[in-house]
Amino acid sequence: PAGATNSRLLRWVGDNLAASVATMPSSSPSAVTDDDVVRWMDMVENLLGVEIRNRAYFMDNEADLRKELKDGVLLCQIINTLVKDTVPKINENTEHEFLCIGNITRFMGGCQRIMGFAYKCDFKAKAVYTCDEEALPKVMKSVCDIM
C-alpha cells in the first residue's frame, strides 16, 4: 500500500537525520549545520506536510529554527501529523511563556507516549523556549526518533 511506502520513506529520512544529529558532539551545540537545518525543515514540510510558518521570511539556519520552535506550536503540529491527536490542545496564543512551555511539554509527553514510557526527551522545555543552542540538536533528534 501507498501508506507503507510513505512510512518506509519517512523512517529512512528520519533515521538518516537522526544519525547525523546523533554524531554531533554534545560539547559543540553549533555542530548543527545550516545544511542539517535545511534537510530537517524540508523533511517537516515536504514529507510530513507541516508548514513552517515563517520560513519564507528567514534564512534556513539554526538560529532561526530555534526561534521558530520556541513556542512549541510547530512541535505539536509535527507530532499530531505523525499520530493524530497526540496533543489535543495546542496553545496558539504564544504571548505568554507558560503557554509556550506548555506546548513544548505536551510535545515531550507525546514523544513518550509514542516511543514508550522509558523514552525521555534529552532537553528541557525551558531550554527550547529560551532558544538554548544545546537544545536544538536534541529537539531535532526527538522528532526523528518518533518518525
Shape: globular
Structural class: mainly alpha
* Main sheet makeup: none
Q: How would you spell out the order of helices and strands?
A: HHHHHHH
Beta-strand content bin: under 5%
Q: How would you summarize what this structure contains?
A:
Helices cover 60% and strands 0% of the residues. It has helices at 2-22, 34-47, 62-69, 73-82, 97-115, 125-129, 135-145.
What would you say this structure looks like, in words?
The protein is an all-alpha fold and 147 residues long. Helix content is 60%, strand content 0%. The protein contains 7 helices and no strands. The chain has helices at residues 2-22, 34-47, 62-69, 73-82, 97-115, 125-129, 135-145. Helix 1 (2-22) runs antiparallel to helix 2 (34-47) and helix 4 (73-82) runs parallel beside helix 5 (97-115). The longest helix is centred in the first third of the chain and has 21 residues, at 2-22. The two termini are 18 Å apart. Residues 1-5 and 24-29 have low confidence and may be disordered.
